[in-house]
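Per reviewer request, we include the raw input and output of the structure prediction for the construct analysed in the revised manuscript.
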Amino acid sequence: MSIITRAIASADREARYLSNGELQAIRDFFEAGPQRLRIASILTENELQIVQTGSQRFWQRCPYTPSNSGNPTFRASCMRDQGWYVRLIVYSVIVGDIEPLQRIGVNGAKEMYTSLEIPLRNLVEALRCLKEVALEMMTVEDASEVAPYFDYLIQGMMP
C-alpha cells in the first residue's frame, strides 16, 4: 500500500484530516517521483540486458542448475521469471512500497518454486545477479534507492 493510501486510510479510520506529518510524507513522496520514474525507466528500458547478463553471471556461478541443463524450456522459464521479477521491482519503485513484491512476488512464489523442485538457493543467487547488473546501470543515488527492493525479494526467497 503506498504512503498516500496508508495515510488516507489511517485518517479515514480515525475520522480526521491528514496530519501535518502525513501531508509532509506525501509531499516527500511526490518530490521523489522523478527519481522513482527515472529508476523505473532504466529498469524497463534495460530489462532484456539485465536478464541476459544476470543469467550469464548466474550460470557462471551455478553451472549445475536446471536452467543451465541444456533444456531450452527450463532456460526460457528461468529468464521469463527473472524478467517478471524486474517488472515487479519496477512496480514497487513507482509506488514507493514493497507491496507489489510482497503480494505478487514473494507470497506463494517460494512454495511454488519448492513444489517445482527449483532450488531456492539458486533462485536467490539468480536474483542477486539481477541486482548486481541493474545497479551497475545506475548512479549511486539511484542504486541506493532500488537496492532495498531487490534485497526484500532476495530475503523473501531465502531457503
